[in-house]
Design goal:
mainly beta, 8-stranded antiparallel barrel
């Protein structure tokens, strides 16, 4: 199988809230906005996007769960929205990728209806403003 890039979410971190726990897991909640570029969709991340990260006491586990909504235009020029639920793990041993995820996408775009049923992979890459999240489809 090969991967086809669907779009990139250019995340702009807005605010973080932390719960530090010396006796167990700690939690960081990160609110964000941003822009989206790609061959199938161009748009913006709407206000309200949040990434919740749970970090194990000994750094042995670091999960993330982000939920956010996009608004923009599909490749046919139609205005549409895309919802993304992005769950995954931070990988400390990878040099080029911060994390990998298994995104679930829902859209009201007829042209992008394949997003509602496809199998996707997400990768987080560092950038100056926060992180770029590349969403790929298994083809």
């Amino acid at each position: 199988m090969e991967l086809e890039e669907i779009f990139t979410v250019h995340v702009k971190i807005e605010k973080t809230i932390e719960l530090q726990n010396n006796n167990g897991d700690s939690v960081v909640m990160i609110s964000f906005t941003g822009e989206v570029t790609g061959q199938y969709f161009q748009g913006e991340v709407l206000e309200g996007g949040v990434d919740t990260q749970v970090i194990g006491k000994y750094g042995d586990r670091h999960t993330l769960s982000a939920r956010y909504m996009l608004r923009g235009k599909d490749y046919t020029g139609e205005v549409c929205q895309i919802y993304i639920e992005n769950n995954g793990n931070v990988h400390n041993k990878m040099n080029d990728v911060l994390f990998r995820t298994q995104p679930k996408l829902i859209t009201n775009s007829k042209a992008l209806s394949f997003l509602n049923e496809g199998v996707f992979v997400g990768e987080g890459l560092p950038n100056e403003m926060g992180v770029d999240i590349k969403i790929y489809k298994w083809v």
